[in-house]
Design brief:
182 residues, alpha+beta, Aminopeptidase, two-stranded antiparallel ribbon, 3 helices, 20% helix, binds coenzyme A
């Protein structure tokens, strides 16, 4: 402890990985920080119900402190033959929970779910300036196969169009039944 710290306690918090429910949607806004994604969360949830997307969250005491979403059978990359890919995106972990393996577990669990949904490839886009996240993906055996201008738009919570311009590396990984969490 430093001289500014008055006392300390240790807490052991269980983190459960599970699919998002409707009750999580407002909480995914993280007290306003991601309010502008409200419509995207709702659309992802509708598509989860249709079996086209999955919203995997890391739940701590009923609050989603981390997330990764997945588009199943994504058209992001054309693979050989009939092989399907899952596009993993929107990975984030609350700052105070970072560096403890939660991001890694979210990706690994997403890969298990992708395989269960007959996707044999996973793809991810990472902003070119996000070296930390790229390092994390490469440690998990993702390889850069190309890049993308990263231009897209969405309607925010006030139905205003928001433009995104974030050049990104595209990474991919062949999913292997023996190298996942099972
Ligand atoms: C990237 C992110 C999800 C990692 O979550 P995490 O729970 O800290 O991940 P882990 O503990 O499993 O692994 C830590 C690794 O994450 C990477 N990382 C990227 N940004 C980081 C950050 N701001 N803080 C800590 N680690 C970060 C590092 O590679 C680190 O590994 P290192 O030991 O080689 O430095 C988290 O840092 C985050 O939410 N960042 C902001 C959003 C983001 O950049 N998402 C990726 C979009 S493609």
């Amino acid at each position: 402890m430093t001289q500014h710290e008055l006392s300390a306690i240790s807490v052991d918090l269980p983190i459960v990985l599970r699919l998002a429910t409707e009750n999580d949607l407002a909480k995914l806004e993280w007290y306003g920080q991601y309010r502008h994604y409200r419509n995207l969360f709702r659309r992802a949830f509708r598509e989860q119900r249709m079996g086209r997307r999955l919203m995997l969250i890391a739940d701590c005491n009923g609050y989603p402190i981390g997330q990764i979403f997945m588009q199943l059978r994504s058209a992001k990359r054309v693979f050989f033959g009939d092989e399907d890919s899952a596009y993993l995106y929107a990975l984030r972990v609350m700052e105070m929970f970072r560096g403890q393996g939660i991001g890694t577990r979210l990706i690994q669990q997403a890969e298990v779910l992708a395989l269960e949904n007959n996707c044999t490839w996973a793809t991810i886009a990472v902003a070119k300036e996000n070296n930390g996240a790229r390092r994390l993906y490469e440690r998990l055996n993702y390889h850069v196969y190309g890049d993308d201008p990263g231009r897209w738009s969405y309607l925010d919570h006030k139905n205003r169009v928001r433009q995104v311009n974030e050049p990104a590396w595209l990474l991919e990984k062949a999913l292997n039944k023996s190298s996942d969490l099972r």
